[in-house]
Amino acid sequence: MESLKKPVIAICLAKLQWEPQGSIVRAICHEAELNNYYVQIFNMNDDMFDGVFSENGEKAVLDLITYERLCALVVMSETIKDRSVVDELIQRTAKHKIPVISVDRSHDEAYNVVFDWEAAFEEIVRHVVEVHNCRNINFLAGIKNNYFSDKREQIFKDVLDSYGIHVKHDQIGYGGFWEWPARQAVEGFLENNKKPPEAIICANDLMAVTAIDVLSEHGYSVPEDVIVTGFDMMELGQYYTPRLTTAAYKFKEIGQNIMKVASIFLSGKKLANEQEVVGYTCHYRESCGCAKRDYIRANKALLSIYGQYSKNLDHMDVMCTMLEQLTQYRRVADIADHLHRFMYDIKYTELKICVCEEFLQHEHTVLDKESFLLDNMVEWIDVQFEKQYKTIMQPFHFREQLAQMQSMYDRENQIMFSPLHANDKMFGYAAVSYNWDHANRHRFYEFVMNLGVILSVVRKKEDEDIKREQLENNLS
Question: What is the rounded distance in angstroms from the CA atom of residue 405 to the CA atom of residue 11?
């Protein structure tokens, strides 16, 4: 098997297009390049939470992993909600004697990189009491019996108790970690008291932003009338006015710790500890009164958001047009000549679209098969952004093709694999290399999901035509 120029680390996760996983993977890739490693990213576009049958098509991307090429595998365990998927992946990797690093959720058969968010959350609560002299403080939790919500609620109560502050039952609300229930909970805070609390500490940023919105609707200013804090530093909190006091991952430290562990594994040395602990950084900003409100920054942020919104609307139009036009065809092979018209705003460096050889064949139906053979693939399309678009039609064994991607590694050092599937059956994948500073992960996600639907619909038409031709031949 042909070797690559550098050792390879794999990252397996769900929903790379969302935060914080996008920033964590970016940090790992940055440190990997500094330490002379290539990175393969195997991304599932579904987090495996609902248990629907299409999830089998998503998780099949993990079948593309070529273990004999890896020096370590990183699994972002908390992003994958079905624990059995993580367990199976770790066990399969262990059989190949490849070390596994589990991020954000401990696993008995892996080396673990976990986040110490508890200390940062406690620091924020103490900050509100000690620096801002608040005593009447409410807490907006997430969901009852959820580990993160329950733990943050307990920290809140313990800290206030240490200052001799008793927390009443009606000072705790449950916002479900998202907008609508958070709005109901804050409305409850205002109904149950003649005046609002001095501060509302929230278990995440989305609920904090919602709390500020509700307070504003009732005529209260933040932080002048009520202090509000968030947690986990979501992107919206950085654009919002007032900017949120919150805490965030130490992304650079996450990448450094993972690469340190991988390098120790590669050297054959033993690790001194079974896990690395990465802390959070607290950011004290406008919503608690530690920073003055910056209206110029707010206006610039608003312009930036509007620009992104306009571009996303344009991309949505492109995707709708792609769906409408390409599903008119009745042969999968006919799509290749027209696909390039809908790929210009993804901002990739190079993109390869590969499908199972039998998926392109017109001799027999394929969608009624239980599964597709990944051994025999076809490199269908190769695109280099703003340079060339080629229909390749080159057969290969998928393990051999992974070794032939040296040019993609040379350009960006990492390649992401995303599945193409018809419901529960993966029939191909998209392999993309891109520059983190210019690529739009959401647009690539939308493109791949739409392409999967288009190919499935057109292949179904092709199967129907084959069945009709066979029936006509039998009758003639």
Answer: 17
